[in-house]
Amino acid sequence: MTDVVAVIADLAIIVFVVTSMLDMGLALSVGQIVGPLRNRRLVALALAANFVLVPLAALLIQALIPLREGHAVGLLLLATAAG
Question: How far apart are CA 17 and CA 10, in angstroms?
């Protein structure tokens, strides 16, 4: 019985996340999506933060806190998954 509840909960979470993303995406016009991309400084800062600062922070955390190999690899994978 608990397995059925766990499967239903997992499916409910997936449905919630997907429908929330669709709702947000479909509520915006093309101009509202493209508008912020015209600010080149903001885009460059966001890219630098996602691809440079977050992986560096993960390496710093890994250096300061002794982690098992699997946890260290997981942390680096999450840090390099931009956005």
Answer: 11
CB atoms within 10 A of CB 74: 13
Please check whether residue 58 is in contact with residue 78, taking contact to mean a CB–CB distance below 8 angstroms.
Answer: yes
Q: Per residue in 20-71, pLDDT tens?
A: 999 988 888 889 889 999 999 999 999 999 999 999 999 999 999 999 999 9
Give me the helix-helix angle, 54-64 and 69-80, nearest 10°. Answer: 160
Q: How far is CA 26 from the centre of its chain?
A: 20
CB neighbours of residue 5 within 10 Å: 9
